[in-house]
UniProtKB/TrEMBL annotation:
Transmembrane segments: none
Record keywords, A-Z: Oxidoreductase
UniProt keyword annotation of Oxidoreductase present: yes
Protein's recorded name: SDR family oxidoreductase
PANTHER family registered for this protein in UniProt: 3-OXOACYL-[ACYL-CARRIER-PROTEIN] REDUCTASE FABG, SHORT-CHAIN DEHYDROGENASES/REDUCTASES FAMILY MEMBER
Family named by the database record: Belongs to the short-chain dehydrogenases/reductases (SDR) family.
GO MF: oxidoreductase activity, acting on the CH-OH group of donors, NAD or NADP as acceptor
Domain of life: Bacteria
Organism of this sequence: Neotabrizicola shimadae
Lineage: Bacteria, Pseudomonadati, Pseudomonadota, Alphaproteobacteria, Rhodobacterales
């Protein structure tokens, strides 16, 4: 089989949460630009519309919803199945970080709960809704988006207790699901980004400098630099890869 076919997602049906902007938009672009039909899921309807316009004439569909509400996710998956008949690739990308970089004893309960709800419960709802049709099909690619901070602690640079806890949970949930669904021919892997520059992050040039200085490659990644890793996990190139973490961090975890 040629490399172009091994890495192809042409004709596949994909579901991407947090797809309106940032890395989620880049991942949706990678799939749509390479021939997949993609349902874009996000709370931000205006940004979803911008993403759809950017991806024209690719076959994409916007669906507004909140990952913390299971009914929203089931509605999105049901809509896909009704239109396209299957679900081949699911990317559980939606996530947030701690609003303020404070140590745990200074963090409010509401701030902690919000991060945990989006990053853990939201990932659970996405995975559950996506796995059901994949089990029926006997095939699928489920990609969780964790973080390099799911494998190491960010406090050496800035405190992010809720983010670190939630992304560590996503990494281990990925391992668990990989084992649970291996016999169903469903590969489950985690994508663990490092520091990427998006339109809204970093929030300040001081933060950007701190991140750049912390990264051995001496720069922040561009959003498009997530696309190759995403396509590897979404395509047949990773058919014998499950339960792993693919880190894209410019060398941070090699420290």
């Amino acid at each position: 089989m040629s490399l172009s076919r091994i890495f192809s997602v042409a004709g596949k049906v994909a579901f991407v949460t947090g797809a309106a902007q940032g890395l989620g938009r880049a991942m949706a672009e990678a799939l749509a630009e390479n021939g997949a039909r993609v349902l874009l899921f996000d709370r931000d309807e205006a940004a979803l519309a911008e993403t759809v316009a950017r991806l024209a004439p690719a076959e994409v569909l916007a669906h507004a919803g909140d990952v913390t509400r299971p009914a929203d996710q089931h509605a999105a998956v049901s809509r896909m199945l009704g239109l396209w008949g299957r679900l081949d690739i699911a990317v559980a990308n939606a996530g947030i970080s701690d609003a303020d970089p404070v140590p745990l004893h200074e963090m409010s309960e509401d701030a902690w709960t919000r991060v945990i709800d989006v990053n853990i419960a939201g990932t659970f709802h996405t995975c559950r809704a996506s796995l059901r049709p994949m089990v029926v099909q006997g095939a699928g690619k489920l990609i969780t988006v964790a973080s390099m901070w799911g494998l190491a602690a960010p406090a050496g640079l800035f405190p992010r207790p809720a983010y670190a806890a939630s992304k560590g949970a996503v990494v281990n949930l990925t391992r668990e699901l990989a084992l649970e669904y291996a016999a169903h021919n469903i590969q489950v892997n985690a994508l663990c980004p490092g520091f990427f520059r998006t339109p809204t992050r970093p929030r300040s040039e001081a933060a950007a400098k701190a991140m750049t200085d912390y990264t051995p490659m001496g720069r922040l990644a561009h959003t498009d630099e997530i696309k190759g890793s995403l396509l590897y996990l979404a395509s047949s190139a990773s058919d014998f890869v499950t339960g792993t973490t693919l880190v894209v961090d410019g060398g941070v975890l090699a420290r």
